[in-house]
Amino acid sequence: MPPEPPASSSFAIAVPAALLARVRAGERAAFEQVYRWFERPVFTLALRICGDREEAAEVLQDTMLKVMDRIDGFRGDSPFWGWLRQIAVNEALMRLRRTRQQPDGLDMELHEPADDATPLPPAAADAAILQRALASLPASTRSVLWLYHAEGYTHEEIGVLMQRTTSFSKSQLARGTRRLRVLLEPDARPVEATSHA
Hints:
CATH class of the largest domain: Mainly Alpha
Distance between the termini: 44 Å
Domain RNA polymerase sigma-70 region: 38-100
Number of domains: 2
CATH superfamily of the largest domain: RNA polymerase sigma factor, region 2, helix turn helix motif
Pfam families: Sigma70_r2, Sigma70_r4_2
Radius of gyration: 19 Å
Mean pLDDT: 80
Keywords: Sigma factor, Transcription, Transcription regulation
Number of helices: 8
Shape: elongated
CATH topology of the largest domain: Rna Polymerase Sigma Factor, Chain: A
CATH architecture of the largest domain: Orthogonal Bundle
Helix content: 55-70%
Domain RNA polymerase sigma factor 70 region 4 type: 129-180
Organism: Luteimonas composti
């Protein structure tokens, strides 16, 4: 198990200097440990930005390959998790920009298949509703919401990351928040089909 995160970001995992030294020395088991600790945060961030599981898996692989390739460039001026998170964000946004240039757009189907009529437990149902609502937002709006609320980036940082202005980040956050509020209102959600067996 990784150490307990000291901050709100799911990336905020304190990686011991001794473990990083072993990764730098090319020790495979040390890299695998770092990979296991950061696999879920990287995948989740990529999924929220890209909106597609296959794209998120690609971002995870590309991020970890870059971490392994660039570990000697990590000077330790900031926490390792912040350095790794920056690589993951850059990879996800680069892939999002690439996808935006393709005519097909994004696969926004992030929810579970509809053929199972068994009701979800309340917490899981709420999570599924939120996931569907997020998936329905435009990619740039969803990205801003995730970077701001889940990862704690400022509007200025998001503007730089997305190669946009600070006001773009603020307007996307406001627009996304309003849209989510509408989508999450009980009256606005479609009634789930129930089984009459």
